[in-house]
Amino acid sequence: MVAIFGIAVANASPPVGAIKGLPGGDVRLLPGLFYDAQRRDLDYLLQLEPDRLLSGMRAAARLQPKAPLYGGWEARGSGIVGHYLSACAWMYAATADVKVKAKMDYIVAEMAECQNGRNEGGLYASPWEADHWYADLGQGRLRLSNVVPWYVGHKTLAGLRAMPG
């Protein structure tokens, strides 16, 4: 193991020349400033409630939400759940924290239930998105003045893609 700037890297030589990326699972932070920041991030991720992050998706799937939506941006639907999955995937790779993995697994299982809820395979962040935006897109009536569903859909897929195997 090699320590570089307070970071322990397994099976690696000290960097020479160009820096190459390392798989997150091959890197562990040592006690210090970066480790403290990572622990605070981990604590934050564990504080967020998956059922609140999924509330808009459940409503869009015509399923009873299990918890109220968060406020702010989230008050419109499940807009950050993809970001959350990506953050959890990176955190799990960096820490192997089983509580983070359990939250990811729960979210994916809930997303599968939401996908089946409408009987058409879609996964939507909000009822408006499911009932209007994508319907307008399919009928050619969409005005691209609101591209939020494209963004949210992309981030949701990116979060799913980031999940550990």
Task: Sum up the structure in keywords.
mainly alpha, 165 residues, 5% strand, 2 domains, 53% helix, elongated
Task: Outline the structure in words.
- This protein has 165 residues and is mainly alpha-helical.
- The chain folds into two domains: 1-30, no CATH class; 32-162, no CATH class.
- 53% of the residues lie in helices and 5% in strands.
- The protein contains seven helices and three strands, in the order E-E-E-H-H-H-H-H-H-H.
- It has a three-stranded antiparallel β-sheet with strand order 1-2-3.
- A hairpin with a 2-residue loop joins strand 1 and strand 2 (7-9).
- Helix 4 packs parallel to helix 7.
- The longest helix is centred in the middle third of the chain and has 20 residues, at 98-117.
- It is elongated, with a radius of gyration of 19 Å.
- It starts with a strand and ends with a helix.
- The model is unreliable at 1-6 (pLDDT under 50).
Q: List the strand order in the largest sheet.
A: 1-2-3
Largest sheet entry: 3 strands, antiparallel
- Strand residue percentage: 5-15%
Instruction: Please provide the count of β strands.
Output: 3
Stretches where pLDDT falls below 50 for ≥5 residues?
1-6
Number of discrete helical segments: 7
N-to-C terminal Cα separation, in Å? 25 Å
Counting structural domains, the number is 2
User: What is the CA-based Rg, rounded?
Assistant: 19 Å
Summarize the helix and strand pattern as letters. Answer: EEEHHHHHHH
